[in-house]
Amino acid sequence: MRLIKTLTVLMFTVFMSMHIEANAANDVVLVEPGPISLPSTKSYSMDEIKKAIIAGALRHQWRVESEAPGTVRIVLDGRRDRAVLVMDVVYDDKSYSVKYVRSEGLRYVKGDAAAFVHNPNSNTVSRVNGGQQTTTIHSSYARWMKALTESINTELTVAKMR
Q1: Helices (H) and strands (E) in the chain, counts
Q2: Which residue(s) pair with 84 in the sheet?
Q3: 71 - beta bridge partners?
Q4: Measured distance CA(105)–CA(115) in Å, rounded
Q5: Cβ atoms within 10 A of the Cβ of 161, count?
Q6: Tens of pLDDT along 40-85?
Q7: In terms of DSSP H, where are the helices of 26-139?
Q8: Three-class secondary structure of residue 157 per DSSP
Q9: How far apart are CA 74 and CA 58, in angstroms?
Q10: How far apart are CA 76 and CA 141, in angstroms?
């Protein structure tokens, strides 16, 4: 009987450690997109930029939570995994950036973000100091940021043609 209890506890421990490692493998370094330069062939009004940000966000089921001069707060929620992601899109007449505000259900772990440098031109991340703890989040975050920035850029291009 004691052997069965010991084996059960051991199997449970192994299963839980495998589950935790599998979930951690799906996490990525949290990288905030930006600053992303606006196309220089046309000057945009602040209102045009705001409209492009909102239209780009709405295209991918983000909702606008609030607006302030130079900032649009957007929320992605209602996913089947009950994840919530809140971002601020900060903009001026030359560029915009997407800033992490908070999340729920996305395994956000705060670390030393200075350990990585993001190159917005090539969309790559470079390690600065090896071995430091980094801020991580569920891998879906990277896909959502890529779709969001591409959508905003498309809306800006469409606005440029008008």
Answers
A1: 3, 9
A2: 104
A3: 68, 90
A4: 24
A5: 6
A6: 777 899 999 999 999 999 999 999 999 999 999 999 997 666 889 9
A7: 46-59
A8: helix
A9: 9
A10: 10
